[in-house]
User: What shape does this take?
Amino acid sequence: MPNTSLQDVMATISSTLACKGAPVTTQLTTLQATGQSATQSAPVKPGATSANITLNWGNAGNQYRVTKVLIRLHGHTVATANVPPATTASAARHHKKPKKPSKLGVQARGGPTFETLNITGLKRGTLQYKVQATSVTAPETISALLSQS
Assistant: This one.
């Protein structure tokens, strides 16, 4: 049974009131040390143009943040947030030049035990985001809520 915090409940209510539907909750693996990271992914719902990601944790002495957001389709990055595309010279010679990924809009807000991202400009594919521990005083499980509209 997942650990439901008051922040998870508030994020669910906020998402519902904003007509984004019920968020999908995932429990991230315990990030035990500063610098560790975990990557999560979820398919972009058909017709969705925006998403909210809310990270929640219980210990105010710990800090976590989303460091990378991108959308992949058929093994290719089609949209990214503030991350330049990486291409290899050999891939450029043997295939058509890959289309430059479009930019996602990202606004982040946070507090001592949460971070919320509003992502705009979604495209068809799989939304991936990387959560990194920026300061860990005691290991804990982080919950991530994702809603799309």
